[in-house]
């Protein structure tokens, strides 16, 4: 087997650090699993042993690789990591979408992916430039949710819109015209929930696209964290289905 490299965006593979993310990778997409790395400090623990047995049963090579784990996770308590093939998916033509416009924080992106899966929104579009979807920090923050979602990148929003012109657009903005509860109540399916960059939000032009949505909050803060906003929007738009 070739020597594994420290993660870089240009690689054709990435890592799912942690026992649970690795387990989710193996469960959801075993065909993408290339090998399982385990720590010598935990190879006999119940969690690692169970994961290793499942990996071997699926034909995935298991190897003790302490140094590789240290490079991947940048911490001492990472006891396993699945090496997996990077791959994007086609989004559902008639499903609800979450659209992330230039997301820049790996922790936020991972948390958003987990929230999307939790609320049954399995299609996520990412508009470039954006943080690396396959960065191990994103994978870990998602707790493996990435592997149960359909995620695809687009070079700009126009490309996404051209591919899904039938979707009703709901851009979330600080200047949104309709409160989130009302927008969700009257939502037209299939819909796209659109969220902007952590620092700058969506460009003003998005206010003219579809129905702009406002999440009301107190004047004590200037805005909500992106992952929090996505969680609120996802809950509001899916709770009545």
Q: In words, what does this structure look like?
A:
This protein folds into two domains: 73 residues, 60s Ribosomal Protein L30, Chain: A (2-Layer Sandwich), CATH 3.30.1330.30; 142 residues, SPOUT methyltransferase, trefoil knot domain (Alpha/beta knot, 3-Layer(aba) Sandwich), CATH 3.40.1280. Helix 2 links the parallel strand 2 and strand 3. The protein is elongated, with a radius of gyration of 19 Å. The relative contact order is 0.15. Helix 1 packs parallel to helix 2 and helix 4 runs parallel beside helix 8. The protein is of the alpha/beta class and 241 residues long. The model has no long low-confidence stretch (mean pLDDT 96). Keywords: Methyltransferase, Transferase. One of its GO terms (molecular function) is RNA methyltransferase activity. InterPro entries: Alpha/beta_knot_MTases (IPR029028), rRNA_Methyltransferase (IPR051259), SpoU_MeTrfase (IPR001537), tRNA_m1G_MTases_N (IPR029026). This is TrmH family RNA methyltransferase.
SSE arrangement:
Elements: E1 13-17, H1 19-28, E2 33-38, H2 46-57, E3 61-64, H3 66-73, E4 80-85, E5 97-101, H4 106-118, E6 123-127, H5 136-141, E7 150-154, H6 157-163, E8 168-171, E9 178-179, H7 180-185, E10 191-195, E11 213-214, H8 226-238
Parallel strand pairs: 2-3, 5-6, 5-10, 6-7, 8-10, 9-11
Antiparallel strand pairs: 1-4, 2-4
Helix pairs in contact: 1-2, 4-8
GO biological process, one term: RNA processing
Keywords: Methyltransferase, Transferase
GO molecular function, one term: RNA binding
């Amino acid at each position: 087997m070739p020597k594994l490299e420290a993660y870089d965006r240009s690689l054709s593979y990435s890592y799912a650090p942690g026992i649970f993310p690795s387990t989710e990778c193996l469960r959801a997409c075993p065909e993408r699993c290339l090998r399982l790395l385990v720590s010598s400090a935990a190879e006999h623990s119940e969690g690692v042993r169970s994961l290793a047995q499942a990996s071997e049963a699926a034909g995935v090579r298991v190897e003790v690789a302490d140094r590789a784990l240290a490079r991947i996770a940048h911490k001492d308590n990472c006891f396993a990591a699945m090496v997996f093939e990077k791959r994007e998916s086609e989004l559902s033509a008639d499903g609800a979408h979450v659209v992330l416009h230039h997301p820049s924080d790996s922790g936020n992106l991972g948390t958003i992916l987990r929230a999307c899966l939790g609320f049954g929104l399995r299609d996520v579009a990412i508009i470039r430039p954006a943080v690396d979807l396959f960065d191990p920090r994103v994978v870990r923050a998602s707790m493996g949710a990435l592997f149960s979602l359909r995620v695809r990148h687009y070079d700009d929003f126009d490309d996404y819109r051209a591919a899904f012109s039938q979707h009703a657009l709901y851009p979330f903005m600080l200047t949104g015209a309709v409160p989130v509860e009302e927008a969700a109540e009257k939502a037209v399916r299939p819909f796209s929930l659109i969220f902007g960059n952590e620092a700058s939000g969506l460009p003003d032009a998005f206010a003219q696209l579809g129905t702009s949505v406002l999440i009301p909050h107190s004047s004590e803060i200037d805005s909500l964290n992106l992952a929090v906003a996505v969680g609120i929007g996802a809950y509001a738009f899916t709770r009545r289905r």
